């Protein structure tokens, strides 16, 4: 998908940004989720039941502004967090065996920020994937993707 949305903010920060810099740039809640792999409480995030405006828009990484998800890939999974069935190719996957469960963690490819987890085979949409993302990890930027 081409990303020519003129409203998109410039990407700022990346893998070489230090933890001290992230602490300055992010709120303590954002830092906890993005840098310490925290999880916001179900049903509390600002994008959980968010509906995009008619002109559409893109969800970018709240840490570095990299575009992650088109608004068209957002769907209502009822799980308590924003859900997307496809990403823009800017999301990395890592197998996460913490808490005795095998899950696949998703992070921002540009800065390594923690987004959430991806689940497969649930049959919600035709891609058969649910990216379960913390609202605190993303930011909606309205505007046509052209
Ligand atoms: Zn990022």
Explain how this protein is built.
This protein has helices at 19-25, 28-36; strands at 57-61, 67-70, 74-75, 83-84, 91-96, 103-108, 114-120, 129-133, 138-142. The chain is mainly beta. The chain has a single domain, classed as Beta Complex (Metal Binding Protein, Guanine Nucleotide Exchange Factor, Chain A), CATH 2.170.150.20. The strands form two sheets. The chain has a six-stranded antiparallel β-sheet with strand order 3-4-8-7-6-5. A hairpin with a 5-residue loop joins strand 1 (57-61) and strand 2 (67-70). The longest helix has 9 residues, at 28-36. 35% of the residues are buried. The mean pLDDT is 93. The structure holds zinc ion (ZN).
Short description:
This protein is mainly beta and 146 residues long. The chain has helices at residues 19-25, 28-36; strands spanning 57-61, 67-70, 74-75, 83-84, 91-96, 103-108, 114-120, 129-133, 138-142.
Number of helices: 2
Structural class: mainly beta
> Could you spell the SSE succession in H and E letters?
HHEEEEEEEEE
Main sheet properties: 6 strands, antiparallel
* Cofactors, ions and other ligands in the entry: zinc ion
Shape: globular
Q: Quick one: how many beta strands?
A: 9
Secondary-structure arrangement, i.e. CATH architecture: Beta Complex
CATH names the topology as: Metal Binding Protein, Guanine Nucleotide Exchange Factor, Chain A
Integer-rounded radius of gyration? 14 Å
What's the CATH first level? Mainly Beta
Strand content: 25-35%
Mean pLDDT: 93
How far the N terminus sits from the C terminus, by CA atoms, comes to: 10 Å
Spans with pLDDT under 50 lasting ≥5 residues? none
